[in-house]
Records
---
Amino acid sequence: MEIQFYGVLQQVVGQSTVQLAGLPSGAQAAEVLRHLGDEYPELAEHLPRVACAQGDSLIRRDQPIDPNQALVLLPPVSGG
Amino acid sequence: MNRITEQPLDLEALLRETANDASGALVVFSGTVRDHHEGKGVSGMRYTAYEPLAEKVLLELEQETIAKFPIHTCRIVHRVGNLAVGEDSVLIVVRSAHRGDGFDAARYAIDTLKERLPVWKQDFYTDGSESYQDGTPLPGSQAADNSEKG
């Protein structure tokens, strides 16, 4: 599935989008983040402070994700 | 005007849009790019947003602020893209019958925006370096959930 990065995460990974394979169907957001941390160890220290979204909604870590939509990773925000 | 926009923010348009005869008070908050951050000179900033969620967050925050305070209107717009020192990054316009409610509502709106809006600030410094400012973890992150529980 597609993972999109925003803010500092784009710098950390060096790209704005990656494809993540090998996720079980019905995976929760937390599981996707674990896979992502294994695949991209440079992200590991950021993941506890990252929120997840799909479309215009935030998703909790224990929520199953829709594999047909990108999972969007949002680091701590600094608007204003 | 979209709530998230690459265009320079248009205060006059917001004032025209929100004008009404019942409001005796108008409070405008403007966030402006300043020329320093943590002791370093800043030459400009780049703001990025996750727009599908950011538009929704601002709409809901306007509605929430109107529900929470005795005010008539609340409009919020936030700029994205490259901004120079002195340019507005955010505008909040509140109109109310009385000034106290207007001040309270505008403060609530900007304080809450800083906790919820998926927008990121990247500073460009006068020494040629750049960095993303650290910020507030959004609800749903492990850090935010732990701090709620604590």
---
Amino acid sequence: MTHFTRSTLAAALVASFAAGVPAMAQVVAITGGKVFPVSGPAIENGTVLIRDGRIVAVGSNISIPADARRVDATGKWVTPGIFNATTSLGLTEIGAVQATVDLSARGQGDGFTPSLRVWEGFNPASPLLQVTRNDGVTTAGLIPRGGLIGGQGAVIVLGDGSLGDVLLKGPAAIFADIGSKGSDRGASRAEVYQRLRAVLAEARDWPRRRDRFDNNESRPLAARPVDLDALQPVMRGEIPLAIDADRASDLVVALDIAREFKLKVVLTSATEGWKVADRIAAANAYVVVGALNNIPRDFSTLGARQENAGLLQQAGAKVVIAGGADAFNARNVKYEAGVAVSFGMPWDAALRAVTLTPAEMYGVSDRVGSLQPGRDATLVIWSGDPFELYTRAEKVYVRGVEVQRPSRQDELMRRYKSLPPDYRKQP
Amino acid sequence: MRATLPLILGAATLACATQQPASAPAPRPAPATAAAGADTSVKAAPAAGALSLPNADPFPSTYHPFPSRTTVIRNATVMTAAGPTMRGASVLMQGGKIVAVGMNLDVPSDAVVIDGTGKFVTPGIIDTHSHLGVYPAPAVDALSDGNEATNPATPYVWAEHSVYAQDPQFPRALAAGVTTIQVLPGSANLIGGRSVVLKVVPSRTVRGMKFPGAKYGLKQACGENPKRVYANRGPSTRMGNVAGWRAQYLQAEQYRRRWDRWLADRKGEPPARDLGLETLAEVLRGNILVQWHCYTANDMEGAMEVADEFGFKIRSFHHGVEAYKLADILAQKGIAASLWSDWGGFKMEAMDGVRANLALVHAAGARAIVHSDDPSGMQRLNQDAAKSIAEARTLGINITEDEAIRWLTINPAWALGLDDRVGTLEPGKNADVVLWSGSPFSIYSKAEKVWTDGALLFDRLDPSQRWRTDFELGFVPQVEGGR
């Protein structure tokens, strides 16, 4: 255990408390639906058997225990819960009200704050969590914003309870940002790469240098000790470094840096990823992209196109579809997947890109992302194709517990559907 | 109705203001209308002047319809926005106009025949709220020309003078079936300036994109934006906002009276012109359509009070995330609501956004419009409509697609004062037509072909003919299959 840092130890402790609080000794059989396990082919008229919040069987010929509560999903589609890999859910409520925005290390660390554990500011009482899970999004990556290395992200499920109850894994990745946003801070590209390399080199050498530093024998460090500690899981390849970049050349640099330091790498945003899709695939990198945007909104995204996700997938890259990054519309990630399909991505691949692939990317595929025995029963019964605009998430389960309830938005709509008596009609 | 007035600001061109009628009465303007507006020669005639006359039009459109061929789309599902969906129907376009829509059309032998089997046809999508050209891509300060944020009231600016015609967002909008847009100044100011209605067409000049004969809109903005931008000099509160509009319209009333008096007998020196008050006077006369950015119910209430006090109409609220709270009042006052389905939460005044907003406003009898305020959202207004239909169903409100297609076409056409020319597939209307690969309410459907005034301007199946702006050359890779 010697190479456990304090932060990872703490995370492990938190994670152990988080392990499942489903209604106990409950058996639920979801029957008759079209089941998409994602880890295997679709099953017509399939059954998903759930016991104590976990999936115990998936198939077309499952014997259903007598004590099982049956949920008829005839004519419905059953999928793992949708996983939005890069959100600010519970970290931001109203974008322009700073008191409700807890996304970043504001004004510390010279852009390097890998020790920031952004999920610690998570607000389990955010009304947007209910809005989001009502729409079938059950799992979320909580990621920091800003900074060259802005901090650590985590994975939560959108179940009930405190942070400890819903945290699946933290840290799940550390988030860096090169390219246009780095340049916006006034640094040139080469300068951004130089600073990133310097910090990573320091982090690589840190376990050997630490004693000398503690004995005051060290030269000045390129980053704070607390941040060098925090980078160790990344340097050991236990969790990925997610690097945000858009221009193809920036993406290539990100891959180069990852190779130099033998890191697991995730590319986020990656607007021009399609131009270097083969290299991304060859590097075995994950790539997190949206599908709605085709606007060359800045000089780093001139190659923006809606085919990006499909072209990356076709080249063999491990594609995660994200988007709807703001908390209010984290629910809309499934429409990004739908648009990716309409611009060339196979439907099955798009479903994987919002379920199992993000789970694998963050190292939580033993819990979520597919419908297999042993996985959490975090899944959705849909009225039809989950990507279609008319489809509703009819039942949403997180670890076997149904989590749909009227959201704040539902209450507003119901209130105004017909004017309530105390809001009398105007003459 | 002519007046001799001094040129100001060195403006070189003052075309005759009365050559184009305010709102085209039937018969609808023939293609030649564009030619009428095409005369850009400086009219040095002593009577020239745009000045405080109804629909003064000093910078008329020079748009000409693109060459078109007689075209029939056969055997498609046709959503006319004027009646029930027709399956297996045909749409005939000739001379830039819709000539016939129906089951058994007499089609000229030289017509281009498009097989619409399995496909859908709708009118061109119209977006009432866009900043294309004034906030072009890429977003750099050098091209950021949408907010004259130097004064809370700038009724004297005209959005058309900020439009960058080579904005690469234009061809992307067209490729999504958007054929007409209103480009507005931004929302920093209480009174942001005149809008311009553009056709989404390639052009060297902005005037070459202007919708011939379209009325101007006036952008006004409620709520947080003006009070944030002018926090230090005022207005810094909502009451300051309302006082700001009232002060401007008090001046405008006086200005209008002064001009009306002079126009009645044209004796003596005409009153001095004021570009800003001229615009506001046209609002008071009903010749400029007020397009008012307001999010909350209370902000809309304040806006309606100002409009009532000064006797002008609000044509459309924009954004209106709380429009559902006042839907019956909007219906009663005949105010349209340009809305999103599910944008919200980004600021306090957007917090109460709900997905059924469009549907609730529609169900109350008001004109619901899907708008974008965003170059990406503009490309899927149809999808936004579908989201609101779906949400409404959960509330037990059934909106048909025939109703919802109006949110994208004839309702925005009305908000721009163009409902007699575009917005439906009816004989005599401009042939602004979209052929969709499937139902426009499916996420998997794309605009496959787009005609403007009968001319095929976008064909997804023929990338070689793709419109590329000057900006894109060399910067934006040309790709197969579009983007």
